Amino acid sequence: MSYQEKRSLVSLVGTLLISVLYGVFIYQRYPTGIPETSEVFKFWGAALLLFVPVQVVFKVILYVLLNVLNTIATREEEPEIADEMDRLIELKSVRNFCYVFMIGFFLAVGAPVVDLEPSVMFLILLITFVVCGAVLDISAFYFYRKGI
Predict the structure, then answer these.
(1) Distance separating alpha carbons of residues 67 and 78, to the nearest angstrom
(2) What is the pLDDT of residue 61?
(3) Is 137 in a helix, a strand, or coil?
(4) Which of 8, 63, 116, 146 could form a disulfide with 120 if both were Cys (CB 3.0 to 4.6 A apart)?
(5) Closest CA to 23 of 1, 2, 54
(6) What is the reported pTM?
(7) Is 30 a residue whose pLDDT tops 90?
(8) What is the 3-state secondary structure (H, E, C) of 14-79?
(9) 69-102 pLDDT tens trace
(10) Distance (Å, rounded) from C-alpha 11 to C-alpha 28?
(11) In contact, 118 and 36? CB cutoff 8 Å
C-alpha cells in the first residue's frame, strides 16, 4: 500500500473518530427543554466554529504519527514531490468534496423553508462537514487504488 493510500485511510478513520467523539461531546452539552431561542443559536454557532479547529488539530497530530510510524516501519521518508497524478487525484477528490458540500449546504438552507426547527439546519451542516471529509478521503483512496 502506498503512502498516499495510508494517509487517506488514516485521515478517514481520524475524521470518523473525531466526529463521533465530538458528536457525543455536543450531545451532552445540548441545552434541552429550551425552545428555539438565541441560546440555542449561540450553542450551535459555537459548536460549528469549534468543530473546524478540533478537526484540524486532530488531523495534524494524526499525520505526524503516521509519518513517524511509517518512517520507523519502512525506513522511508514521506514523498515530498507531488507529480501530476497526485495533483489530479487531489483535484478530483476536492471536486467530489465540493459536490457533496453544495448538496448539504442547500439541504441545510432549505430546512427552515420547509418549517423545520433551526437546529436542524445546524445539524445538517455539521453532518455535511463530516460526510464531506469522508468523501474527500474515500475519493483519494479510490483514485490512488484505481488510478486515473
Answers:
(1) 7
(2) 95
(3) helix
(4) 116
(5) 54
(6) 0.87
(7) no
(8) HHHHHHHHHHHHHHHHCCCCCCCCHHHHHHHHHHHHHHHHHHHHHHHHHHHHHHHHHHHHHCCCCC
(9) 988 888 877 777 778 999 999 999 999 999 999 9
(10) 26
(11) yes
Rg of the chain over Cα atoms, rounded to whole angstroms, equals 18
Q: Which residues contact 123 (CB under 8 A, 6 or more apart)?
A: 44
Residue closest to 126 by CA, chosen among 7, 25, 8: 25
Q: What is the pLDDT of residue 75?
A: 84
C-alpha cell at 19: 466526529
Mean pLDDT of all residues belonging to the chain:
90
Joined together, the cell numbers standing for residue 17 give 473518530
CA distance 50 to 59: 14
What is the distance between the alpha carbons of residues 109 and 120, in angstroms, rounded to a whole number?
10
